[in-house]
Design goal:
Blueprint lengths: L16 H18 L13 E6 L5 H12 L3 E6 L11 H9 L5 E6 L4 H8 L4 E7 L5 H15 L6 E5 L6 H12 L3 E5 L15 E3 L2 H5 L4 E4 L17 H8 L3 H7 L5 E3 L12 H4 L6 H19 L6 H5 L2
Parallel strand pairs: 1-2, 1-3, 3-4, 5-6, 5-8, 6-7, 8-9
Length: 320
């Protein structure tokens, strides 16, 4: 039987397909727990989880907090504005001070790529979970996307996933490429040439500069927003948002002309409505965006459970 034997979850690039599948299996069982009238089990009673979010977040932070509380863990949240980083303290010093208080898990979100990996090496007695680091990875987002597609389509073999948008600055895209390709799906990325990083195909995907060929034959369209906060001041990656939307946005007419009738539309949020997705698509029958959010809680419950050495099934925990 496959187990997840790692102390940390830093990125999907580190995991083999069996480890990813095992996390999804455990998350599927925790998902059932989330549908019960009483949504709490004693699985992590007596454990402590610190959320160190030094970058803004709504869905990820709330999802991790709900996940920990549903497992009966004690949770503590620290944001950038309330941390000693505002006084000049380094991330490593902040983390070492927190680790000296003996939390079991440190969930880290940081604007610098590689920050969670550095902490995982520096803090051997504290589990580190990456909640998004720069443009590197967002592994739990990748896992919830995988769970959503598996539940909708049944599996990944023979499936095609197209990721459209700001690939250059997207940690979501990188985790998705690693996860979907490792589980057997074909992955395409599409966007303006200025937002497709050189060498991205080395990760196991095919790059497209036009939307139509990238959409045709795809089972899943994952739309990404333009990450204005990561664009360098004065840089021009495309003429205007209107022009970007015309060339790379998805509306009902483009789906009708190019896409499979049962195509699945995904988005990690937040959505810039009218740019990457028209409201009729974001809220339409193709969309699994709210399913992604729902599955995110189950995935994060599974990750918190497994990095602390979970061996029993989530179902058995629910009967404890």
């Amino acid at each position: 039987m496959t187990h997840f034997a790692r102390k940390d979850l830093v990125g999907l690039a580190d995991l083999d397909p069996d480890e990813i599948a095992h996390i999804l299996d455990v998350a599927d069982q925790f998902r059932d727990l989330n549908l019960r009238p009483i949504k709490k089990v004693p699985t992590l009673r007596g454990k402590s989880v610190v959320h160190l979010f030094l970058e803004p977040s709504t869905r990820t932070r709330t999802s991790f907090d709900i996940a920990a509380k549903r497992l009966s863990a004690d949770t503590f949240s620290i944001s950038g504005s309330s941390s000693s980083a505002t006084k000049g303290e380094t991330l490593l010093d902040t983390a070492r001070n927190l680790a000296a208080m003996h939390p079991d898990i440190l969930v880290v979100r940081h604007r610098r790529a590689g920050a969670p990996r550095m902490l995982s090496e520096a803090l051997p007695n504290t589990a580190i979970v990456n909640a998004g680091d720069g443009a590197c990875e967002h592994p739990t987002q990748g896992l919830l996307d995988l769970l959503t597609v598996r539940r909708r389509l049944g599996g990944f073999a023979g499936r095609t996933v197209t990721i459209v948008g700001d690939i250059k600055h997207s940690r979501v895209a990188r985790s998705a490429i690693h996860g979907f390709s490792k589980l057997g799906a074909e992955v395409r990325v599409c966007g303006p040439a200025t937002l497709i990083p050189p060498g991205i195909e080395a990760l196991g995907c095919t790059a497209y500069g036009r939307l139509e060929p990238a959409v045709r034959g795809a089972d899943v369209l994952m739309m990404l927003r333009i990450q204005q906060e990561r664009l360098h001041l004065g840089s021009h990656y495309f003429p205007t948002l209107r022009e970007y939307s015309r060339l790379f946005g998805i509306n009902r007419e483009k789906l009708r002309r190019w896409a499979k009738r049962d195509v699945v539309i995904m988005h990690p949020g937040p959505i810039n409505r009218g740019v990457e997705l028209e409201p009729e698509v974001a809220d339409g029958e193709w969309s699994v965006i709210l399913d992604q959010v729902e599955n995110g809680v189950a995935v994060r419950m599974a990750v918190l459970y497994l990095v602390l050495g979970g061996r029993r099934t989530a179902a058995s925990e629910g009967r404890a």
